[in-house]
C-alpha cells in the first residue's frame, strides 16, 4: 500500500493508482472538488496544490510522485473552525473573485509565494502568478489582494 497525506489526513492506495493524475485522485477519490480542472495539461494553474509546501500543478503530477508527501488543497487552508485564511479573506475584500474558478489555484500559488517571499513587490506578485490564468478579473485585483494581505498581516 502507498501512503499520501492530504490536508493532514493520511490516505492509502494501491499500485493501480500510481499513474493516476494527482488532480483526479483529489477530486474523484477524495471528493475534494475545490481543486479545479481547467486545462488538464499544465497550462492554466487552476489545479495548483501545495506538495511539501511547494505549489505544483496537480494535473501534471502522477499520484506515484506524491507517495509519502504532504499535499494541501484549498480545503486545507481555512482554520479548523471554518474561518477563512487571511489570504482568502483578502481575495474577497479586494474583489479578486468573480466566477471563482481560478481562485483555489491562485490562493495556493499565493501561499507558496508568500512563504518564499513575505514582502513581494507588485512585479514579483505578477510574475509569481504568470502560470495562473484568470478569465475574469484582469489580474489587478488579484495582485491587490496579495498586497492587502501583506498590509493586514504585517
Ligand atoms: S488544470 Fe492543471 S494547469 Fe490547468
Ligand atoms: S475569477 Fe473567473 S477565472 Fe478568475
Automatic annotation (TrEMBL):
Its EC number is 1.2.7.4. Pfam families: Fer2, Fer2_2. Keywords: 2Fe-2S, Iron, Iron-sulfur, Metal-binding, Oxidoreductase. The keyword DNA-binding does not apply. Residues 1-77 form the 2Fe-2S ferredoxin-type domain. InterPro entries: 2Fe-2S-bd, 2Fe-2S-bd_dom_sf, 2Fe-2S_ferredoxin-like_sf, 2Fe-2S_ferredoxin-type, 2Fe2S_fd_BS, Beta-grasp_dom_sf, Diverse_Oxidoreductases. GO terms for molecular function: 2 iron, 2 sulfur cluster binding; anaerobic carbon-monoxide dehydrogenase activity; metal ion binding. The keyword Iron applies. It is an enzyme of class 1 (oxidoreductase). Gene3D superfamilies: 3.10.20.30, [2Fe-2S]-binding domain (1.10.150.120). This is Carbon-monoxide dehydrogenase small subunit. It comes from Spirochaeta isovalerica.
Amino acid at each position: 500500500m502507498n501512503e499520501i497525506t492530504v490536508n493532514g489526513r493520511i490516505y492509502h492506495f494501491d499500485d493501480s493508482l500510481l499513474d493516476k493524475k494527482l488532480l483526479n485522485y483529489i477530486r474523484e477519490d477524495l471528493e475534494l472538488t475545490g481543486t479545479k480542472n481547467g486545462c488538464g495539461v499544465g497550462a492554466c494553474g487552476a489545479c495548483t496544490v501545495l506538495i511539501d509546501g511547494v505549489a505544483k500543478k496537480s494535473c501534471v503530477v502522477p499520484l506515484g510522485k506524491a507517495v509519502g508527501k504532504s499535499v494541501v488543497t484549498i480545503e486545507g487552508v481555512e482554520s479548523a473552525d471554518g474561518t477563512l485564511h487571511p489570504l482568502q479573506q483578502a481575495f474577497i475584500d479586494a474583489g479578486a473573485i468573480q466566477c471563482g474558478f481560478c481562485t483555489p489555484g491562485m490562493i495556493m500559488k499565493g501561499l507558496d509565494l508568500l512563504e518564499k517571499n513575505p514582502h513581494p513587490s507588485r512585479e514579483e506578485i505578477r510574475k509569481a502568478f504568470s502560470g495562473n490564468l484568470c478569465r475574469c478579473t484582469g489580474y489587478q485585483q488579484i495582485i491587490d489582494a496579495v498586497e492587502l494581505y501583506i498590509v493586514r498581516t504585517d
